Amino acid sequence: MRVNIKYDDEFGAVDVSVPATADCAAADEYDGYGQGFCDFLNDAPTVFHAVEHYAKTLKAAGYVHLTERDDWAKQLKPGGKYFLTRNYSSLIAFALGGKYEAGNGVALIGTHIDALTLRVKPVSKASNCGFLQLGVAPYAGADNMTWWDRDLGLAGRVMVSEGDDIVQKLVRLPYPVAKIPSLAPHFGSIANGPFDKETNMTPIIGLEQELEKQFSALTAKDALNNPQSNHSPRLLKAVAKQLGVEVEAIKDIELELFDYQAAQPFGLERELLSVPRCDDKLCSYAAAEALLRATADKEFLAKSGTISMIFLADDEEVGSGLRQGAGGNFLQSVVERIVDVLKPSNAGLGNKVTQTYAKSFFISADVIHAVNPNFAYAYEPNMSPRLNVGPVISCDANAHMTTDAPGKVLCQRIADKVGTKLQLFQIRNGQPSGGTIGPMLSKATGMRALDMGIPQLAMHSIRATTGSKDPGLGVKYWEAFFREFEAVEGTIKVDH
Question: Is the pTM of this model over 0.90?
Answer without folding.
Answer: yes
